[in-house]
Amino acid sequence: MNSDKVFLVTRADLNPGQQAVQAAHALTEFIFQHPLEAHRWKQESNTLVMLVVPDEGKLRLMVEKALQRGIHHSIFQEPDLENALTAIAFAPGDLSFKLCSGIPLALRASLPKA
User: Fold this and answer.
1) Model-level pTM?
2) Burial degree of 89 (CB within 10 A; 0-12, 13-18, 19+)
3) Are 63 and 73 in contact (CB under 8 A)?
4) Dmax of the chain from CA atoms?
5) Distance between CA 26 and CA 55 in Å, rounded?
6) The pLDDT of residue 74 is above 60
7) Sign of the C-alpha dihedral, residues 90, 36, 48, 93?
8) Rg (Cα) of the chain, in Å, rounded?
9) ∠88-13-20 over CA atoms, to 5°?
10) Is residue 15 within 8 Å of 6, Cβ to Cβ?
11) Is the distance from CB of 87 to CB of 13 less than 8 angstroms?
12) 38, 64, 81, 110: which is deepest, by most CB within 10 A?
């Protein structure tokens, strides 16, 4: 099932290490801000999907869409980058899946070629 995953979305204009750390920050925010949903997700699936959009503007657009559609989410703004929006965690569910479908997987370019 695709709707039982937490979707982490970060920015392609960050280096791979920053992408991973910022996504982890967003997940931590999600766990603290939405503890019941986080607990249910951990018990039922514990599956993460890390995606990447081009830049902060695209992340902000996703936040707007999530707010319009009532999707629970948590953002992370990095203090070391002038509080720039760097990552979002979206709660499991069909609406999150629809919002995130079509967004490429993060860190694909850094995978070794077979």
Assistant:
1) 0.92
2) buried
3) yes
4) 42
5) 16
6) yes
7) negative
8) 13
9) 50
10) no
11) no
12) 38
Are 8 and 61 a contacting pair, CB within 8 Å? no
What CATH topology corresponds to 5-110?
Bit1 (3.40.1490)
Give the pLDDT mean for 2-13: 92
Sequence ranges of the domains in the chain: 5-110
In the numeric block, the tokens 């514990």 are attached to 46
- Rounded distance between C-alpha atoms, residue 58 and residue 69, angstroms: 17
pLDDT of residue 111: 46
Main-chain phi, psi angles of 85, to 5 degrees: -70, 120
Residue 2 has φ and ψ, to the nearest 5°, of -90, -15
Q: For the chain, what's the residue count? A: 114
Beta bridge pairs of residue 51: 9, 105
- The distance from CA 23 to its chain's CA centroid, rounded to whole angstroms, is 6
Q: What is the pLDDT of residues 26-50, one digit of tens each?
A: 999 999 999 999 999 999 999 999 9
